[in-house]
Amino acid sequence: MSWLTAVTIVTCVTFLQSLADRAPVVSTNVGQVQGETDTFSSKFLQGSGDVYSYRGIPFAKPPINERRFRPAEAMDPWEGVINATEIPPSCPQIYQPFYKHLYGTNNFSEDCLYLNVFAPRDASPNAAVMVFIHGGSFVLGSGSDFPYNPLPLVFLGDVILVTINYRLNIFGFFSTGDDAIPANLGLTDQRLALKWVNENIEAFGGNPQKVTVFGESAGSACISWHLLSEESGQYFQRVILQSGPPYAIWATVLTPEQSRDIAFLAADIGGCTPSVPGDTSGLADCFRKNLTVEELLEIHSKVDELFLLGPTVWIATNDGEFFTDDVNTLIEEGAYSNIDILLGTNKDEGTFCTYLVTGLPEERPFVSKDFLTFITTGFNDPLVSDLLEAVYASGIDQEDNYVGALEDALVTSPSNVDVLIG
Is residue 111 within 8 Å of residue 89, measured between CB atoms? Predict the structure, then answer.
């Protein structure tokens, strides 16, 4: 065999392998995307096969410059084929130590409104669709940081999986309480992604009438808010709420007045105090034009330091648009969309919650006096305080009791309330 023949054969094999690694080009309503093939194999789960993966599909125009702090806009059509094989950037955030240990870190950019689609190569016709909304206290996370390997769920579950990015922290949950900087930008990002799924998932083999939205923690809380929105509710039929009930203290929705106060506090910190007192349009103009991403994250961090549960400063607002009424009123009146709901929590979730609560004793063993003060705060009934002391302050393992108290207060009990009301 000549050298030229050998090179030709190797080149052809390499080319064919390259073609085999590609996923089919899919035509969406705004343009074509080219994915890649990932192989799943597990002796433990007794399965193996190929999954078509499309990473980094844009579902909105970049929320930069004049589009910063404005509702996301759907993508304009593009020509050619987008290479959807690279992990997209996360939305701007400050990486916490525990997050680095769990997921590592990813580059971030204001141009971050992308989603990922994973589909079994041999998917059933009109396959069910699952859309994952990530958690992270509304301040960190990414659709590419799916906490579990997506391939087993997609291949063994025979489902189309979609994971999404949305704006976080000051970029996604900051508002002047009026139209200058509208509220709930992170939620409207999610809604636009759900609309994209509704309009395009059929091209990937999914059924837009069989969509389940699921998420953990803050992602779950976001889903519960979408349940209260008629506009959002048209894009899914089932939800799974994992450890993120709307009645959790950390998911308390702000009033427009509270959002406005936080906005002016942030403006003072960032040097954007308007020359005319109360001028929200001037404040918004400064935040859009004069501050860098790094400066905005610094403001986000400094505002957090002023509150006990800092991350929940950046949260949804009762704006009269996304929420047509007070959130608690909507829940109590049963305004949820008429869909199936699966709700639950994870075991020992209080161990994770300890990372999110600041200003509490850090030494171990915990001082009983401080511990009791924490768990009984907010209860005027002596009987309730006595019961809390009996449940969480008895025995010798104060650390376990502390974790259990956090878990029940922040996740389990609010979930039980949701079940009773629902």
Answer: yes
